From TrEMBL:
Organism of derivation: Methylobacter tundripaludum (strain ATCC BAA-1195 / DSM 17260 / SV96)
Protein name: N-acetyl-gamma-glutamyl-phosphate reductase
NCBIfam families in the cross-refs: argC
Recorded superkingdom: Bacteria
Domain Semialdehyde dehydrogenase NAD-binding residue range list: 3-141
Record EC number: 1.2.1.38
Length: 343
């Protein structure tokens, strides 16, 4: 039985990890930390977990966490990097759901996240946890940088075109919408449903923190620099990411459709829909699935790829568990055979 610890168990990604791991037959959640709620039963804060999780919130202390086989960091940026090195030295595998180890350039990371990196030497050791791209490296890794929600949807959408050099990499556009849970579980005026409801807006058009992460991933696949315009939007729903991706591409629609179907044929969590489909975020809500469809409007050179995920599952907690399964030699879909909620 794998002993799992969760640092930051009170946020949306933390409780989503608990929901998934509670039903994982190979995992026992032994430590759940929260500085504010230490001493409180987890199911007292989240009654939905009654009968499934018996843990009590504790302080994030190294000695306690070192007794785990794997520790998930569902924490704000800048937390995992303070403890990862010590946990790794104790033989604990680390899966970080924040951005601490996603960027390979420490100076670039500091530029976007506004602080010095506490352990830049570990950045090279971290494996970027997008299983559809780095599966074999993930299996051998002890430190995983779990991708962000926007980067997951965008990279899965563009990946087959880049791998086959079928798209102009200098003019890529990612127009992406997110539900309000992407902002985390905090009291913030701009993300209250009464403020976001009946409204829709773009934000961070001048530069979002996920931009360098997306560009880094696309450049790794393309083998060259890319020109990416990434515009995120906030939409009045709780869960979901909808990425509409544009580029100038070669090949007819039938060939591109076949390419996507072949690329993802053996991927448990990527579903390429039939031609003409329009994936809906509700079709993946609560699941670890990504649904993709490909269009070529008016038969022109512009290709449009639609990619949808649940930002809290495939965009965070579910993908983290997918990585854990690979790291421990389990079936990749263990604990993740979750059918989307409808309606």
């Amino acid at each position: 039985m794998i002993r799992a610890g969760i640092v930051g168990g009170t946020g949306y990604t933390g409780v989503e990890l608990l929901r998934i791991l509670a039903l994982h037959s190979d995992v026992e959640v032994t430590v759940v930390t929260s500085r504010a709620d230490a001493g409180l039963r987890v199911d007292a804060l989240y009654p939905s977990l009654r009968g499934a999780i018996n843990a009590v919130f504790s302080l994030p202390e190294l000695e306690t966490l070192a007794e785990c086989d794997v520790v998930f960091f569902a924490t704000p940026n800048g937390t995992a990097m303070l403890m990862a090195e010590q946990l790794l030295a104790r033989g604990v595998k680390v899966i970080d759901l924040s951005a601490d180890f996603r960027l390979k350039d420490a100076k670039e990371w500091s530029k976007w996240y506004g602080m010095e990196h506490a352990c830049p030497d570990l950045i090279a050791e971290a494996v970027y946890g997008l299983p559809e791209l780095n599966r074999e490296a993930i299996k051998q890794s002890n430190l995983i940088a779990c991708p962000g929600c926007y980067p997951t949807a965008v990279q899965l959408g563009f990946l087959p075109l880049l791998e086959n050099d079928l798209i102009d990499v200098k003019h890529l556009i990612a127009d992406v919408k997110s539900g309000v849970s992407g902002a985390g579980r905090k009291a913030e005026l701009a993300t209250l449903m009464s403020e976001t409801g009946e409204s829709f807006k773009a934000y961070a058009v001048g530069g979002h923190r996920h931009l360098p992460e997306i560009a880094q991933g696309l450049e790794l696949v393309a083998g060259k620099s890319v020109g990416l315009t990434f515009v995120p939007h906030l939409t009045p729903m709780i869960r979901g990411i909808h990425a509409t991706l544009y580029g100038q591409a070669h090949g007819n629609l039938d060939d591109v459709q076949a390419l996507y179907e072949k690329r993802y044929a053996n991927e448990a969590f990527v579903d390429v829909l039939p031609q003409g489909s329009h994936p809906d975020t509700r079709n993946v809500r609560g699941s670890n699935n990504c649904q993709i469809s490909i269009h070529r409007p008016q038969g022109g050179q512009t290709i449009v790829v639609l990619s949808v995920i649940d930002n809290l599952v495939k965009g965070a907690a579910g993908q983290a568990v997918q990585n854990m399964n690979l790291m421990f030699g389990l079936k990749e879909d263990s604990g993740l055979k979750i059918i989307a909620l409808y309606p």
